Amino acid sequence: MRLLLVDDDELDRMAVVRVLHNPNLVKDIVHASTAVSALKLYDESTFDIVLLDYLLPDMECLDVLSQLTQHTEKHAAVVILTGMEDNAVIERTCIVAGAQDFLLKKELSERHLTKALVHAQARHELNNQLLETHKRLKYLAENDPMTGLSNRYYFEEHLHGSIQRAQRFNIQLGLIYLDIDNFKLVNDSKGHDSGDQLLQKIAQRLLEVVREGDVVCRLGGDEFAIIVHGLDAETSSGILAQRIIENLRLPITINNTEHFVTCSIGIATYPRCAMTAEDMLKNADLAMYQVKREGRDGFHFFTGALKEQVLHRIMLEDELRSQRLQSQIVQHYQPIINAKNLQVCGAEMLMRWDHPTRGLLLPGEFIGVVEELGFLDAIDTKNRQLACNQLALWRSIGLVDDQFVLGVNVSESLLRQENVPNEIQKDMAAAGLPGECLSIEVTESVLVSDFEKTSAFLNRIKAFGVKVAIDDFGTGYSSMAYLKWLPATILKVDRSFVQNVPESQADCRVLKAIIIMAKSLGLEVIVEGVETAEQARLCQEYGADMLQGFLFSQSLSPHDFAKFLKAHNPETYKLNTLE
Ligand code: C2E
Ligand code: CA
Ligand code: CA
Predict the structure, then answer these.
(1) 471 CA distance to ligand 3 middle (Å)
(2) Which end of the chain is more exposed for a tag (fewer CB within 10 A), N or C?
(3) Rounded to 10 degrees, what is the CA torsion of 183, 186, 187, 188?
(4) Is residue 256 classed exposed, middle or buried when 0-12, 13-18 and 19+ CB atoms within 10 A define those classes?
C-alpha cells in the first residue's frame, strides 16, 4: 500500500510514521505539508490511501477532499485526521463528502491505524465497484445495445432538460423524428439479422451527418430521433433533414448486397410548434405521418394546418370504418350530351357521401381513404348494381330510350378481380338490361400498369356488349401509340384539355389533335368538363361525339335527373345543332 500523508505539523506526521510499523501493510509513505503540494503529488503519482489532516494552512479540508474524490483518473481511499475533540458534525460532513474514515490524532495506535487503513481501503474498493455497476446500469438504461445510440428513456429525459435550458436561454430546439420507409420488407425478406445490420449502418450514417452537440437516439424499431440545439435550430433542422434523406439514399452494403433505403421525417421545433417534450414528440410524429401519406421519402415541418389535415383524415378513417358508410353513399348522375343534336344521350354515375352532419361530400374528399382502407371494391359493386336498377327503371317508364348509355367508374383493384366481368353480366341480367347500355370507365393509368392483363379483362367485358371508356385521357402516362391497342370503345378527354380553351391557341390545337386521332382509331369521343358554350362549339367543330360538363348540368340526384331530362331543351345553349 502506498500512502500519502498530508499534515503541516511535522511532529504529527512523525507520530503517524512511528505507529505504522507494519511494513507488510504500508510499503511507502510520501509526505506533504500543504494541500497544494499534496494535490500535486496525488496528480503525479498513484496512492492507495491518503491520510489527510483536517486543518491545513492553505486550503479547506472539504475542498481538498472534493478534489481528491472527484479526480477523474486517480482513486484512493481517504482517511481524515483531526486533533479536535468535539467533531460529530465535521465527521459526518467529511464522510458524506467522500472520505472513508475519520480518526482522532490522540487515539492513534498501531492497531487502530492499521485497522482503519485496511477498512478504508476495503470500503473504498466496494464503493468503486458500486460506482462501476451504477455506470454500467446507467449506460444500459440509457443506450440502445444494438446501435450504441441513446435510447428512448435517455431521449425523453434529455428532451425535457433541453427544453428547460432553451427556455432559460431563450434559444430554439428542433426535434427530427425519423422512420425508415418499408423497413418491415427488409426484415421479412432478408431476415432479422440483415435488418439489425441495416439499422446499425443507418445509425452510423446519422452520427456522420449531425453537428457536434446534436443528440441522436433510437426510439425503437426503425424509429430514430435527433435533438438539434442552437440559435438557429429551426433552420438547421430542415437542412439536417434534407442531408439525412440524401445520405440515406446512398446504397448501404450488407453481406455484399446493396440496400436502398429512404426515410420519412417529421420536424417539430421549440418554441414555435410545441412547448413541452410530449407535444414536440407528438407533433413531429404527426408531421412524419403526413410524409408517409404523401408517398414517403421526404420531410415535413409540423404546422397547425397540417395538424388539422391529419386529424381530419384520422376522423374520416374512423367514420369510414364504422358500418354505416354503405347506406350513406348515394348515386348521382351527370348528363352526357350528344354533341351533334345536343340531346341527352347518356349519363355518368358519380357517387356522393350523404354525410349526416357535413352534407353531401364529393368523392375527392373521401375516395382516397376509402380505397386505402380497402372499401372501394364493395362500394363500387353496390353502386353499379344500384345504377343498373336505376337505369332499368328510367327505361321502363320511358324517361330514356334504348340508346341511352350509363357510365360507371371502376376502381383499379376491382379490375384485378377475375370474376368481375361475370358479375357485371349478372347485374345486367338481373336488371333486365342489354350490355350496350352500360359503359365501364377505366383510367388510362390502370391500363398502363398492367396492360396485358387489363386488356384481357376488358375484352371479356366487351364480349357481352358493354362499352369500355378510357377515363381522364391525357392525365396518365400512356402514349398515343397505346391507344390503338386499347380494348376501348370510348375515349373521355380529361377536362384539363378544355379548361383553357379557347384562350390558349396551343390547347385548342392539342384538343383538336386528340379528337381527330381518337376518331381515326374508331373511338367515340366524350369531352369532359365543358363549362362554356364556346368550348362546346369548338368541341363540335373538332368532331367530338359527346359533351359532359357544367354547361349542361352538374351531377344530379335521380329525382333531379328525371326533372332535368324532362326540361332539357337544346335550344337554350344557343349552339348550332348539326343534325
Ligand atoms: P371522373 O370520373 O373524371 O368524373 C368527372 C368529375 O368531374 C366529377 O367529379 C364531376 O362532377 C366533375 N365535372 C364534371 N363536369 C365538370 C365541369 O364542367 N367542370 C368541373 N370543374 N368539373 C366537372 P366528382 O363527382 O367529384 O368525381 C371525382 C372523381 O371521383 C371521378 O372523376 C371519379 O374518378 C371518382 N368517382 C366518382 N364516383 C365514383 C364511383 O362510384 N366509383 C369510383 N371508383 N370512382 C368514382
Ligand atoms: Ca369517370
Ligand atoms: Ca373523367
Answers:
(1) 5
(2) C
(3) 120
(4) exposed
Nearest to residue 124, comparing CAs of 62, 90, 74?
A: 74
> What pLDDT is stored for residue 71 in this prediction?
87
Q: Which of 517, 514, 467 is nearest to 495 (CA)?
A: 514
pLDDT in tens, 475-525: 866 566 677 777 899 999 999 999 999 999 999 999 999 999 999 999 999
Which pLDDT belongs to residue 323? 61
Q: Whose CA is nearest to atom 34 of ligand 1?
A: 409
The grid coordinates listed for 101 are 474514515
Any domain includes 312? no
User: From atom 20 of ligand 1, which residue's Cα is the shortest distance away?
Assistant: 529
In a 3-state reduction of DSSP, which class is residue 298?
strand
Q: How far is the CA of 228 from the centre of ligand 1 (A)?
A: 46
So what's the pLDDT on residue 449?
A: 72
Q: What is the pTM of this model?
A: 0.65
For residue 579, pLDDT over 70 is answered with no
d(CA 527, CA 540): 10
Nearest C-alpha to atom 23 of ligand 1 is from which residue?
529
The average pLDDT across 88-101 equals 88
d(CA 330, CA 350): 9
Q: What is the CATH number of the domain that holds 212?
A: 3.30.70.270
Task: Report the separation in Å between the CA atom of 11 and the middle of ligand 2, taken as the mean of its atom positions.
Answer: 107
What atom in ligand 1 is closest to the CA of residue 443? Answer: 34
Residues with CB under 6 A from ligand 1: 334, 350-351, 362-364, 367, 376, 380, 383, 409, 411, 441, 471-472, 495, 529-531, 548-550, 555
Residue ID of nearest Cα to ligand 1 atom 35: 363
For cell 320511358, what's the residue?
398
Q: Which of these three, 268, 302, 336, is where a domain ends?
A: 302
Domain extent for 512: 317-578
Per-residue model confidence (pLDDT) at position 232:
86
Does residue 408 sit in the same domain as residue 339?
yes
CA distance 94 to 80: 8
pLDDT at 324 over 70: yes
Q: Whose CA is nearest to atom 37 of ligand 1?
A: 350
257: in domain: yes
Nearest CA to ligand 1 atom 15: 549
Question: Is residue 72 scored above 90 in pLDDT?
Answer: no
| Candidate from 333, 409, 551, 557 with most ligand 1 atoms within 8 A of CB, to mutate | 409
Cα 383 from Cα 409, distance rounded (Å): 9
The ligand 1 atom at the shortest distance from the C-alpha of residue 551 is 18
What was the pLDDT predicted at 479? 64
